[in-house]
Amino acid sequence: MKKLTIFVIVILATMLAPMTALAQEPGSGGPVIEGNFGGSVNFGAMNPLRNNDTATNRITGLMFPTVIGASGITQTYGLVGDEAVYGALATGYTISDDGLVYTFTLRDDATWTDGTPITTKDVKFSFDAIASGAIDAPLYGYFNYVADGNPTGVKEIRIIDDYTYEAVFEVAACTALGLGAGFPVVPAHVWNYDGSPDFDFSVLKDHPFDSNPSPAFGPFEFASFNPGEAVAVKATTTWPDGVVIPSGFIYRDVPDQTVLAEQFLAGETNFIDGPPVQRRPDIRAAANVVAVDMPGNSWDYVGLNLADPDNPQPGRDENGNPIDQGHHPIFGDVRVRRALQHAINVEDIVSGAVFGEGSVMASSQIPTSWAKNPDLAPIPYDPELAAQMLDEAGWPLGPDGVRICQGCLYAEEGAPFEFELITNQGNTRREAIGQIIQDQLYDLGINVDFQAIDWQSVLDQTFGAQTFDAYIIGWRQGFPDDPDQIQLFGSANDDPANQSSNAVSYYNPRFEELSLQASTLPGCDPAERAAIYYEIEKMLQDDQPYLWLFVQNTMYAASTEVAGFAPYPNAPLWNVHTWTIAQ
Amino acid sequence: MTQFILRRLIQAIPTLFGITVLTYAIIVAAPGDPVSTLTFGPRTTKAQRVALAAQLGTNDPVYKQYIRWLIGNDWQKFPKVDGRGNPVLDSNGEQIVERGTKKGILRGDFGTSFVTKRPALELIIEKFPATAELGSLSLLVGILLGVSIGVLAAVQRGGVFDNLTRVMAVIFSAVPVFWLGLTLLLIFGSWLGWLPMGGRYPTNYFLTGEVSLADRIEHLILPVAVLSTGWIAILSRFMRASTLDVLSQDYVRTAQAKGLAYRQIWFVHAARNALIPIATILGPAIPGIIGGALITETIFSWPGVGRTTYSAVLTQDYPVIMCAVIIVSLTTIVGYLLSDILYALIDPRIRLS
Predict the structure, then answer these.
(1) Residue B199 is nearest to which of A205, A224, A252, comparing CB atoms?
(2) C or N: which end of chain A has fewer Cβ atoms within 10 Å?
(3) Residue A473 domain-assigned (yes or no)
(4) pLDDT in tens, B188-234
(5) What is the CATH number of the domain that holds A82?
(6) Residue B350 has pLDDT above 80, yes or no
(7) Looking at the domain assignment, is residue A2 inside a domain?
(8) A5 lies in a domain?
(9) Are residues A386 and A467 in the same domain?
(10) Would you state the pLDDT for residue B225?
């Protein structure tokens, strides 16, 4: 019996050994093929410093590192060797006592695919190129980020040695980690960078690197670019964090969402990120597909104008003092806003607008955020309570079934409860949201003039002029999530002349005080910061500058021919170098 | 003839100029601006928007923007600033002043895309092969089938074939391209799995660079079929009417009396003269081929000019829009000119003067 066992083991080992060896060969695993519905027909310059759109990032993120990475498990920043972090260069960092200097240590075993070591020279080159203003870089935030009037962006990058550098800030803020080490790093030697302070960064513009971004550091390196059709990258053999098994990653342009889903189901692509909601049941049901649902990070909301739309004013004057912005005749009264949140059935909206593929939001934080208050429940749908609250706020039902102002706070006596709700035409999800809200509020005696207009007109009326009543659009949180929302609700960011994000003109000194406290907390302890964000989230739920709707769920799916597919929220490709695709 | 061509080309200059003025005015007058689209997001500050507007030149009055687009800005000098908007100083502590780098379209510089940071002309030109391939093959199929169907329908006037093709023409004209495209994709790509579901090349081509003729033909079948339906509908009706006119002519009756085979009479003698009016619609077809077919390109993931231009319109990418307008305008003018010349060449009764 023992002999037989040994015999079987030897036979099995003999059979499996070549298979294992084969599977471990770089590029032996077949290509990952993803359809791209990013409208990237004009897929841009592939220098990650020059282009930062979602489609370009998908590819450049596979080829170029950042100093600090992000973990799908913790949903926060991570270092080399941390679980589920790839593409990072930093093995550690320290923070000075005053919080103004972050010192990063880079791994010393990383080389570009041409063999040149990756050093702090590449990091400084990349940052200085962004800050030079000479390369049309979209990554202004890293050096120019201003929160509540404080310049929190990186002031300077100083090289200490080949593998140590300092990121210096003017003010201490908890955004420093991401700003000082989150930007992409490109090979400085491509442009013969000599470290001179007079280096002319405009040489990066219209450089061949834009369309042939080599050398790289990542699981993949550039293979081909067929404009309007596909970008392909191929497996590298110099990746220090393991053998790259897929032969490549092909990112095909598929501008029609129906076709995108059909191509995946037909096996023409083997990975899909965020298929159209109406096709998700089919994808889940498909026999040859592994589908994973995740809460997403894009959320839609109804913005309510709290200020007088006939006389838009900035939130602060030149000296930083608050300006009286007047009151919107309807939404200026917080009781009305709270009543409206009770009056809309967000679950129904989720069903109608995204086929149930969404999670109701309690307030301003998305479910995956580390700063989400787990005890804060969404405001329940309660039309009777809403009607009662509106009665109490001076908006009883009129003789023709429409509510009218009788003792309301800011509208003229007898004025009907009616307002204009706008959204961007062509976005079927938001158009459905608008129609459902219109119906739901009609039942309560509120007339909503819902209009889907072109995107530019929405921007003009809202952020550009603040002459609107209410609008539906959405925001998308970053990854890792920065829960700071001073840009959305701070009075310093409320100026109709400057396309400011606080178009609803929310002003609450306590909110601004807490936001500053959370974003500049000494030591930036996540637990302590989260406690402050919990309070902020509750405050925004009470004050209702937005009607909180839902965050869209996302779905990652791969064909069953893909072995190793194990996505995390926001990080479906964290282990893509281990995927094996049956050929 | 030479005089005629020269005169038409000279006349085209003010036409083209007028088109560019009008187009520039319309895109600038449209709601919003490229900067608000490019910088939309809560993290963008006023300083960043101002810096970007200065970089793109969209903060200037419209006439200045247009003149710069036309003749460039290398005759102007600009103070150099860094990404924070701070002045960049030389070793003497004085702000560096640099000449602009744009040459303007009169010197062949169509500018750089606001969105992709790539040269606008390159973005359009690189899509030409795909667009021309799809457009010309569709036209070719449309002509071959449309002309044949038209001639046969005319000679069998009132018969079953004539009535069937009449219904077919109505259907081909009325069925929306997006519906037909999606339906064909679902049937032949998804359900039957006979044909690829879009794209111009098989996926492996992007890694290996290898592609066979059969692969290329497979990828062309569905989009060409969809795009040629419109041509078949138009040309078959056009050809039918034109052939009916010719069939009643004396020389056809003479040919019949001489005992020539009917096929020879219809397709050699009658069709040849019936084709003359068709020439008038082939010239204007050229800009249609060059300009691309947005919906078909979108459904079939075809990397063409139409999608590129549409995308540029949505993002208010002025240089790319203007580049596309110039090229399509030029081909329209040339297309009509060719149509006139062709008409004169095949019909000796026409004299260009």
Answers:
(1) A252
(2) N
(3) yes
(4) 998 998 999 989 999 989 999 999 999 999 999 999 999 999 889 98
(5) 3.40.190.10
(6) no
(7) no
(8) no
(9) yes
(10) 94
Please check whether residues A528 and A577 belong to one and the same domain: no
Q: What is the pLDDT of residues A401-431, one digit of tens each?
A: 999 999 999 999 999 999 999 999 888 899 9
Using CB atoms, pick whichever of A41, A456, A500 lies closest to residue B32. A456
CA-closest candidate to residue A233, choices A375, A46, A421: A46
Same domain, A274 and A332: no
Contact assessment for residue A167 and residue B118, using Cβ atoms and an 8 Å cutoff = no
CA A296 to chain centre: 9
pLDDT tens digits, one per residue of A220-232: 999 998 888 899 9
For B304, the closest chain A residue by CA position comes to A228
* Closest residue to B49, CB basis, from A248, A266, A498: A498
The C-alpha of B137 sits at a distance from chain A's nearest C-alpha, in angstroms, of 19
Residues A350 and A278 in one domain: no
Are the beta carbons of B198 and A140 separated by less than 8 Å?
A: no
Give residue A38's pLDDT.
63
Contact residues, chain A, for B314 at CB < 8 Å: 39, 455
Q: Which of A32, A37, A40, A41 to mutate to test the interface with B (most CBs of B within 10 A)?
A: A41
Q: B-chain residues within 8 Å CB-CB of A256?
A: 182, 298-299, 301
Least confident interval from A107-121, A253-267, B275-289 = B275-289
Look at residue B43 and tell me whether its pLDDT is greater than 90: no
Residues A86 and A222 in one domain: yes
Per-residue pLDDT, averaged over A475-481, amounts to 86
Residue B350, min C-alpha distance to chain A (Å) = 44
> In the sheet where A164-169 sits, what is the strand order?
A90-95, A101-106, A164-169, A154-161
Q: Please work out, in degrees rounded to the nearest 5, the angle formed at the alpha carbon of residue A381 by the alpha carbons of A380 and A385.
A: 95
Joined together, the tokens standing for residue A432 give 């459905």
Q: Tell me if A27 is assigned to some domain.
A: no
Contacts of B119 in chain A (CB under 8 A): 206
Q: Position B50: which residue type?
A: V
| Residue pLDDT, tens place only, A263-304 | 999 999 999 998 999 999 999 999 999 999 988 889 999 999
State the total domains in chain A.
Answer: 2
| For A56, nearest residue in chain B (alpha carbons) | B116
Which CATH number goes with the domain that contains A328? 3.10.105.10
- Report the C-alpha gap between B339 and B347 in whole angstroms: 12
pLDDT of residue A412: 95
Q: Which of A286, A247, A231, A295 is nearest to A263 (CA)?
A: A286
Q: What is the DSSP letter of A377?
A: P
* A285 lies in the same domain as A361: no
Residue pLDDT, tens place only, B79-133: 777 766 677 888 788 888 888 888 888 888 998 888 888 889 998 998 889 998 9
C-alpha count within 13 angstroms, C-beta hemisphere, residue B104:
16
**Boundaries of domain holding A63:** 40-226+259-295+555-581
A328 pLDDT exceeds 90? yes
Contact A223 B32 (CB under 8 A): no
Whether A220 and A362 share a structural domain: no
Assess contact for A227 and B126: CB atoms under 8 A.
yes
If asked whether residues A343 and A357 sit together in one domain, one would say yes
Distances from the Cα of A250 to the Cα of A257, A267, A272, B3, B218, angstroms: 18, 14, 12, 54, 20
Q: Which residue segments constitute the domains of chain B, with CATH numbers given?
A: 31-107 (no CATH), 120-346 (1.10.3720.10)
